[in-house]
């Protein structure tokens, strides 16, 4: 008679599954709380102590760690020496393990949870048992996910046993499960000692969404979420309307949020292909939207819009005048939703705490052969702002310079943007030469460039950028400084009456 060892924290479906196994002629071994639940349901089980000949000890910390359990799981069924060993020691085979682990993830997320409680929810026997069963999948079926009960029963009923293919698939799930589980524990211990870059890096993601494709239709893709609090992120957004999000939607949407979180006053950010095409702040959201739209009326078409205030009827009407892929906001008025949802293909996301800024996540970039990990770029300025020209910026210019310095963080390097009245009017991005980025921004701004200010994510290596800006009518510049030729740029600014401010830090985005 075949035996299954059933010991689960998540008891969903376990009674029904056990009854089906009994009906198919299996014996069931069980432990602790699972044993109690099954007995109360009228299911005959063998208590673990009958197998181990040893009581559960240390408040249940030790119950399945025993040769009678692991011997029954790990022996090779066709190996005569293994069979003889089990016969001599009177160890019975265990042909199935049904187990899911203590809820470490749920425990560590609990508000006010103590260290002792977290430690007690590190499962020891469960991982040992399911890893043993998975290692011996050639002979043993291991089930860690209640959604797999039906697959196992279907094969047992139709074939009399589970297939090698199913057992291998279930074993694969075990090692993914235990690797994820251990990564959470490692992450917790790293947090205790504030270790940001440990000797070995383990990353924990879950809740996979299959995507239709990646950046291009020929690339397969999926979306996995962090396990931490997802409030204020696109991963935690509530979708109110529209088709499922694509790879590019998620990537561009995240870029939109990263920029939006820089601003506290009513602000709208428009993004296209991972770069902002318009950013505006104002007294109200409608004013902010108009500034973002006016920045680049063409590129905003088919883009993504993020707002840090509730979208009302007037703003919704303006958005509906053009085709927009996604709108993200903390909330929407009833009338605004009615207007926006009148279009079938728009995706509407609600992100309640959209202005949340602090996250424990690191920035990760994959390269061939490894990964690059860094802190998120959340600092605004260096030690202090320093005016390096003869002329100081006016109050209005300084307001626009600081707006631009926040906004340029979201532009791919080399990146610059022109600002007037807390709205972008021309953006130059992703150039290999900074003066090209400057010239692109000037060209896109057109006649509006006169009287504007410029923010640059990196220093000017030559004075040519200042020359171009002076000729266009730009009145003030904010940049990191630090070039060997800073003096030349400063002198050129002085010759043209341009105010220049150094920040002491750069904001490259690659």
TrEMBL record:
It catalyses: IMP + H2O = 5-formamido-1-(5-phospho-D-ribosyl)imidazole-4-carboxamide; (6R)-10-formyltetrahydrofolate + 5-amino-1-(5-phospho-beta-D-ribosyl)imidazole-4-carboxamide = 5-formamido-1-(5-phospho-D-ribosyl)imidazole-4-carboxamide + (6S)-5,6,7,8-tetrahydrofolate. Residues 1-144 form the MGS-like domain. One of its GO terms (molecular function) is phosphoribosylaminoimidazolecarboxamide formyltransferase activity. One of its GO terms (cellular component) is cytosol. Keywords: Hydrolase, Multifunctional enzyme, Purine biosynthesis, Transferase. It comes from the Bacteria. Its EC number is 2.1.2.3, 3.5.4.10. Pathway: Purine metabolism; IMP biosynthesis via de novo pathway; IMP from 5-formamido-1-(5-phospho-D-ribosyl)imidazole-4-carboxamide: step 1/1; Purine metabolism; IMP biosynthesis via de novo pathway; 5-formamido-1-(5-phospho-D-ribosyl)imidazole-4-carboxamide from 5-amino-1-(5-phospho-D-ribosyl)imidazole-4-carboxamide (10-formyl THF route): step 1/1. The keyword Transferase applies. CDD domains: IMPCH. GO terms for biological process: 'de novo' IMP biosynthetic process. Belongs to the PurH family. The IMP cyclohydrolase activity resides in the N-terminal region. PANTHER family: BIFUNCTIONAL PURINE BIOSYNTHESIS PROTEIN ATIC, BIFUNCTIONAL PURINE BIOSYNTHESIS PROTEIN PURH. This is Bifunctional purine biosynthesis protein PurH. The gene is purH.
């Amino acid at each position: 008679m075949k035996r299954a060892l059933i010991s689960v924290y998540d008891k969903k479906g376990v009674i029904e599954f056990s009854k089906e196994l009994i009906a198919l002629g299996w014996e069931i071994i069980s432990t602790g709380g699972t044993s109690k639940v099954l007995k109360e349901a009228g299911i005959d089980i063998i208590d673990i102590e009958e197998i181990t000949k040893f009581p559960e000890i240390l408040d249940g910390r030790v119950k399945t760690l025993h040769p009678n359990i692991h011997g029954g799981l790990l022996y090779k069924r066709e190996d005569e020496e293994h069979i003889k060993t089990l016969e001599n020691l009177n160890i019975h085979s265990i042909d199935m393990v049904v187990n899911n682990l203590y809820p470490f993830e749920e425990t560590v997320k609990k508000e006010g949870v103590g260290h002792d409680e977290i430690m007690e929810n590190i499962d020891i026997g469960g991982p040992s048992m399911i890893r043993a069963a998975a290692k011996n999948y050639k002979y043993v079926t291991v089930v860690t996910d209640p959604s797999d009960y039906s697959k196992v029963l279907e094969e047992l009923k139709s074939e009399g046993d589970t297939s090698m293919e199913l057992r291998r698939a279930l074993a694969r799930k075990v090692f993914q499960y235990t690797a994820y589980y251990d990564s959470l524990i490692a992450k917790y211990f790293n947090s205790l000692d504030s270790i940001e870059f440990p000797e070995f890096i383990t990353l924990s993601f879950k809740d996979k969404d299959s995507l239709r494709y990646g950046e291009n239709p020929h690339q397969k893709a999926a979306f996995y979420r962090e396990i931490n609090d997802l409030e204020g992120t696109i991963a935690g957004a509530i979708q109110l309307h529209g088709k499922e999000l694509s790879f590019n939607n998620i990537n561009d949407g995240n870029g939109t949020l990263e920029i939006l979180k820089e601003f506290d006053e009513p602000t709208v950010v428009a993004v296209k292909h991972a770069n902002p095409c318009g950013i505006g702040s104002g007294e109200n959201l409608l004013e902010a939207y108009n500034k973002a739209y006016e920045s680049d009326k063409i590129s905003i078409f088919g883009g993504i819009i993020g707002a840090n205030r509730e979208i009302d009827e007037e703003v919704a009407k303006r958005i509906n005048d053009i085709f927009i892929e996604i709108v993200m906001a903390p909330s929407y008025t009833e009338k605004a939703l009615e207007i926006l949802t009148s279009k079938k293909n728009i995706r509407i996301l609600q992100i309640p705490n959209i202005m949340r800024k602090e996250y424990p996540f690191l920035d990760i970039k994959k390269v061939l052969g490894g990964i690059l990990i860094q802190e998120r770029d959340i600092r605004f300025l260096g030690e202090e702002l320093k005016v390096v020209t003869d002329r100081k910026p006016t109050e209005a210019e300084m307001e626009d310079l600081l707006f631009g310095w926040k906004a340029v963080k979201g532009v791919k390097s080399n990146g610059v943007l022109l600002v007037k009245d807390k709205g972008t009017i021309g953006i130059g991005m992703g150039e290999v030469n900074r003066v090209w980025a400057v010239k692109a921004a000037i060209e896109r701004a057109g006649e509006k460039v006169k009287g504007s200010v410029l923010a640059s994510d990196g220093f000017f290596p030559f004075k040519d950028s200042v020359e171009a800006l002076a000729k266009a009518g730009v009145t003030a510049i904010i940049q990191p400084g630090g070039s060997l030729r800073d003096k030349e740029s400063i002198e050129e600014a002085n010759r043209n009456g341009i105010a220049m401010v150094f920040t002491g830090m750069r904001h490259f985005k690659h």
